[in-house]
Design a protein that fits this description.
Blueprint: H1 4-18, H2 25-38, E1 52-55, H3 62-73, E2 99-102, E3 117-122, H4 125-142, H5 165-184, E4 194-199, E5 202-207, E6 212-214, H6 219-223, H7 243-248, H8 250-255, H9 259-265, H10 276-285, H11 287-302, E7 306-309, H12 313-323, H13 365-396, H14 401-430, H15 449-459, H16 465-471, H17 512-524, H18 550-573, H19 588-592, H20 596-604, H21 607-629, H22 660-671
Parallel strand pairs: 1-2, 1-3, 3-7
Antiparallel strand pairs: 4-5, 5-6
Bound molecules: 2-acetamido-2-deoxy-beta-D-glucopyranose (4 copies).
One 2-acetamido-2-deoxy-beta-D-glucopyranose is lined by residues 167, 251, 254-255, 269, 277, 385.
Length: 672
Amino acid sequence: MGLRAPVLLAVLLGMARQMAAQPSHAECQALTDHYLDKHHKEAEPYTGKNLLYFLHVPRTAGRTFHSCLLKMATHPARRCPKAYDHLRLTNMTNPNCFLLSSHDDFSVVSMLPPDAAVLTQLRDPLDRFLSAYEFAIEVASRSLKRPKNYKKKVGRIATEDVWPWSYLIPFFQADLQSKVPKVQDQVLPEGGRWAEVEQDGDRFYYNKVLNKSKWNLTEEERTLNGGVLPLLDPYNNELVMSLKEFAEHPIATELLHNGATFQVLGITNYSHWGDAAQFRGCLKAQASVEEHMLQVAKDRVRRFSHVGTTDRLFDSAAAAVGSLGLSTDSPAYSGGDDDVAGHGGTRASRTSGGAQRRHTRGASSLAAQLQLLAKLVREARQRLQTAQTELVDAQRSGGDHGVIELLRNRVDKARQDLIDAQDKLSTTRDQLPADLGGAGGDSSSDTSYHHRRRLLAEEEGSHGSEEGDIASGHVGEEGAPVTDTGADGAGADSQADAEGAGEQYPLDSEGEEEASHRRRLAFRNIEVGQTDAFGNPLDPEFKKIANSNIAAEFVRCANRAQARSNSRREQSLAALSYPDGRSVLFSKAARKRIPAEVLDLIRSHNKLDTQLHALGLEMLAKRIEELKEAGNWDPVPEQPHERRKGGDGKRTGRLPRPDEEEEKIDDELRRL
Ligand SMILES: *[C@@H]1O[C@H](CO)[C@@H](O)[C@H](O)[C@H]1NC(C)=O
Ligand SMILES: *[C@@H]1O[C@H](CO)[C@@H](O)[C@H](O)[C@H]1NC(C)=O
Ligand SMILES: *[C@@H]1O[C@H](CO)[C@@H](O)[C@H](O)[C@H]1NC(C)=O
Ligand SMILES: *[C@@H]1O[C@H](CO)[C@@H](O)[C@H](O)[C@H]1NC(C)=O
């Protein structure tokens, strides 16, 4: 390439940056070339001996999938440390562990070992979007009840620390703070007002002032103080930004719409690639780029070791187990965040005797420090992205060697700063008591760090810490709607495929047939390693859940996770209420009432994800067929989750259920 073209390009790029909404054709061409040049690393087949990376798309029940399935199926000595707020690996290319999960996008894969295998879960984008809206509001609403001097719980990765919630939750907090107090200042007239409400699928009338519920109202009640207040639409009310407004808001485009495709492409808002935002602009502006990248995403996903879908969560779990060379009867292992590679569970390192859990005094004083360090990590990441963008611009514009060298150094420096910042955060976190997510650190202790971790690993009971993990508000509040397929009326048109588009592009690796063949061969030859990454033989009994297996543990764990997230959701949302007693309550019934126009709007913003999800369904069906052929298909029994009906006085936000007998008597008395 001559010198002139890049110079011209740089000018165009500069212009396009200022008009981010409309990137030029030339800029998009350059970015596409750059993308294809830099992002060619693909997932490799899983052999049982290579790193498995779970690309966790937010709101796909990925948390359940990871904690209740992948983690339990993986011996603790082979698991990587938790990685939701930041990757806690000291050496990305040689992580010394075999199961890693994070909300990072595919751009992280280029930093992982060359043979890393990848798996993911996809979801109907409409359900995913609704779920994200509901979840962000739920978490944001908790801030309404917090005292002014509220301090974050120590040692937990708060949802607010995890992308994309790190943006969405403050966004909704600000929205709620501008709306809720005004609504709650309204004063009810004497005698109150009757309002139509819905709870556990029942509709009835409630009068907050009288604290009374009724199935039917008398004429007098019906006209009391201006009449009956209508049922509150949780997706459209005065307390919080409506679903429609949110779907049209730039932040939804930035962080949610087509998010699964962007994550697979490695071009999300959280990408390690500095030009990701511009490139997303190109996909939006130019149909040819969009189509091309959809094809890249599909080809990429076809190389994944497992692709499942949230709407078939239990089938996906069974398929994943088969795809990873296990069976649903394989052993399940418990263990919390400390039960990771290097901290026990191998014959070489197992020691006897249980230690008492240590508590560090002054743990709460670490809270502020942790928050600061987490902030520094985010800032360092931002600086790295900026530095990368500048370097790429300079390279494109054929800037002089000195300048490029300078910028390159700046990128290296920024990268090192990010690593340092992450290390500091990890180290500080490790000083927390173990039950708060740290290593139980106690600086006065003379035991070594690893020894302490090992003792803690031994001490933890055999069962159950994974529940706390899901429910305790670690990243866990995923609320995996296990059985909730939500409003999915418009799914059928998703079949339309840009399948043919591939031919035009040299990048396309191999036909679907071939890819599928590769995967088939791969999962038949998997032999799960029986050592940790250092070659120490695993202790097969370590943290093994007695008399159980993966399938049983998955069902138990997934159902429990859902039950907890349901009840937590209800409690959190109780803060979002009118003085008349009506509150924002997301439910299946309420989803069904969302106007088609709003659903169509969301769909129209998620065309890529709709197609990717369709491919996911197709791949899952195919994989199940392959497993059946191989005699390795063993479905996980889906047990419908039991809903608790009726009031539980202890839970906040519950309305009293109307008492039918009493009401009938009332009625009869009135008629006398
Ligand atoms: C990371 O591991 C690789 C492969 O073992 C090694 O070559 C490299 O030096 C390591 N990097 C660091 C920073 O330890
Ligand atoms: C409202 O009535 C129910 C019983 O119908 C009772 O359990 C609840 O405590 C009452 N709430 C208030 C705020 O008085
Ligand atoms: C409420 O009214 C409906 C008809 O309008 C009636 O069928 C039902 O029995 C009534 N319920 C009670 C508890 O009175
Ligand atoms: C990510 O999105 C947030 C919210 O829209 C925005 O403030 C931030 O600048 C974006 N970051 C990048 C790197 O694009």
